[in-house]
Amino acid sequence: MSVLQKPIFEEGQLTDLFRKINDICGVVDFVDNTDKLFEITLHKITALFRASRGSIFTLRENSDELVMITAVGAQRQEERAMVKRIGGSIVGKVAEQKRPIVVEDIGKDGRFANFKPRKSYKTPSFICVPLMVKDNLLGVINIADKESGLHFTTNEMQLLDFLSSQIALNCRRIQLYQKFEKSIKEAQKLKDRLGRRDQEAENLKKQIDIQEKLATLGKLAGGIAHEFNNPLDGVMRYTNLSLELVHDDVVRGYLLEVKHGLDRMANIVKNLLACTRSQSIATERADFKEALDYALAGLKAEIAHKNIKIEKRIQDDLPSILDLGIEGVLTNLLHNAADAVNKNGTIKVQISCQNDVLTIAVSDTGRGIAKEDSEKIFEPFFTTKEMDKGCGLGLTIVAEIVKSYDGSIRVESKLNEGSVFTINLPVK
User: Fold this and answer.
1) Rounded distance between C-alpha atoms, residue 306 and residue 345, angstroms
2) Which ranges in the chain are annotated with CATH 3.30.450.40?
3) pTM score above 0.85
4) Of the residues 123, 194, 231, 242, which has the fewest C-beta atoms closer than 10 A?
5) Which regions of the chain are under pLDDT 70?
6) How far apart are CA 336 and CA 368, in angstroms?
7) What is the DSSP secondary-structure string of 121-165?
8) Which residues contact 281 (CB under 8 A, 6 or more apart)?
9) Is the CB of residue 179 less than 8 Å from the CB of residue 34?
């Protein structure tokens, strides 16, 4: 690793790193407005990255203007004049593309050949990351001027990108709390409309609950990504090398199964992160028959033990769509169905397309879902299974993948009669 690529955190400092990340994510517990949240969070982030400059821009409502809301290390006249338009500057470009960037040297970066850096900047390197909740842009965060004078790295950009998703979630959480409090005050003043206000308050409280669970899941996903990505990369690299050198068909078959398992482990991390932020990064097309075969292979032992009958009906001329996690959808739905079905039961999988809508239906003859639970099954960490059989994330992941397609999912179920999960995905 070159000097410019040296990470800001040594291996022995991971405990301190996670403590600081948790501290940044926990700022929301001590503030009651977004301005204070951004101010305190920005100071903590610049300290974390050992940077002497930083700024946060927020998108002005019903406009294409980004206004600097807080800054570290900026001169007063700069701060007062900072208004950017989407697409009209580096900050504007990041807001327009909704993608993070890291610039090692602005003078050597061909993307910004016409950009004239401010004289007040001490170094030519910076990171610029969008603040997003799902696909909704809230603003942009910019970090510059490392105190060491070194360049920022891709690893640091990824860390800031993760933190930005947590900051955006915290901002939304405060907004929901403020809306919740406003709803309560209105309900107290308008007693004749109390019933409807109570329902609105309950819905808002439910949204807050879900946001808090997703924020917790985001912290977990960040830790998993940090701890697993590097070891996984190494194992995958050596597995690929072994595949090139091994000619024995049996051993090669085993290695291909190992490779598929490693790919699934990497996708699990991506799916966890997808629960807190939408990431439409897929480039491959979905092969439904192959995805279904892999999903069923993982349940082979349970299917055989319970003597479950599998009925598959897949249309031959299915349209091609991006693979944003089709195998994960099928795996989770089939796993739940296999858990619910007793011995000698049946699971049916039907995939078809009509009128530019792709339909995936998974039905079972299992124990069904109670009516009071049917509205909660897609919430993070909700489960009716025993502790050792599930943590309540499977259907949350399914719902988030379906949302990434702008699709819909519904469940029909009766106790002791089985369940049917139907997913509709528009073909674009």
Assistant:
1) 8
2) 12-189
3) no
4) 231
5) 1-13, 75-81, 113-120, 190-198, 210-211, 213-230, 264, 267-283, 381, 385-392
6) 11
7) -SSS-EEEEEEEETTEEEEEEEEEEETT-PPP-HHHHHHHHHHHH
8) 270
9) no
DSSP secondary structure of 215-265: HHHHHHHHHHHHHHHHHHHHHHHHHHHHHHH---HHHHHHHHHHHHHHHHH
Contacts 24+ apart (CB under 8 A), 230-236: 232/262, 232/265, 232/266, 235/262, 236/262, 236/263, 236/266
CA angle 267, 271, 275 (to 5 degrees): 170
What type of residue sits at position 309? K
What tokens does 363 get? 């039905």
Please give the CATH topology (third level) of the domain spanning 12-189.
Beta-Lactamase (3.30.450)
With tokens 């169905």, the residue in question is 337
Lookup: tokens for 215: 């924020």
Give residues with Cβ within 8 angstroms of 263, minimum separation 6.
Answer: 236
Q: How far is it, in rounded angstroms, from Cα 5 to Cα 197?
A: 55
Each as own residue / partner, the long-range contacts of residues 222-228 (CB below 8 Å, 24 or more positions apart, any chain) are 222/21, 222/162, 222/166, 222/273, 223/18, 224/269, 224/272, 225/162, 225/269, 225/272, 225/273, 226/14, 228/265, 228/269
| Distance separating alpha carbons of residues 123 and 109, to the nearest angstrom | 14
Digit-coded pLDDT (tens) for 151-165? 999 889 999 999 998
